[in-house]
Amino acid sequence: MREIKTEEIIKAVKNLCIEANYSTTTDLKDRIKKAFEEEQSDIGKEVLSVIIKNQEMAKKEKMPVCQDTGIAVVFAEIGQDLHITGGIFSEAVNEGVRQGYTEGYLRKSVISDPVFKRLNTNDNTPAIIHTDIVPGNKLSLTVMPKGSGAENMSEVRMLRASDGLKEIKNFVLEKVRGSGGRPCPPIIVGVGVGGNLERCAILSKKALLRETGKPNKDPNWAQLEKELLKDINRLGIGPMGLGGTITALSVHIMIEPCHIASLPVAVNIQCHANRHKTIIL
Description:
four-stranded mixed beta sheet; alpha/beta; 2 domains; 8 helices; 39% helix; globular; single chain; 10 strands
């Protein structure tokens, strides 16, 4: 059985936190450049040009793309033939976040109690950790810094089993319309369908990790993504909510089986930065 030390995990998570906040993925950059070409509003074009320059400057100057460096969401796929030594996995992940947010001079926004003692933990921990056990002996780590501007616009809704596609579309459009410029458009819209209450929320967040604009493998869901993106961009919200033809860059849907009497749907909105980085150890 292959072994991996927690020291390696700490180092990897630390670097991912910094890299994800400093530089955006190539597919996202390409999609924003395409959006600039497609945008018909002058002010929308101006906003998109500023976003492009901001991305370039952040990478060059080694500074955050956005001042809200988010709560650290970590997706881990642990091979069942892998043995982690030297400590507890979750503690290693949190130590990596602690070091990354400190050494990378990233804003620390996590509080210890949501209501009664809203005191900053001062190191952006604990992270939100999602773990899957998969075949093999490798460890895949993805760090997604998720800011609250977009996260606050997200929602889970338990639709009736008979509601079908029409209500799914209505729900997504309702959330985007009501969000306006608050999630810093152009946005990526993650949609989770199926599972149950908590599972569809995780699906909607994992959907944001897909290559920007890459269609769903299932042609039926790919068509729904295409229709939703078209309808969203007809809303006229535009870049940063200042009006325009590009409100969203992409709609990504993930599905899973669900109970026959349920239709769980989650919408997780992401800002134009859509920060995430992955490493396989």
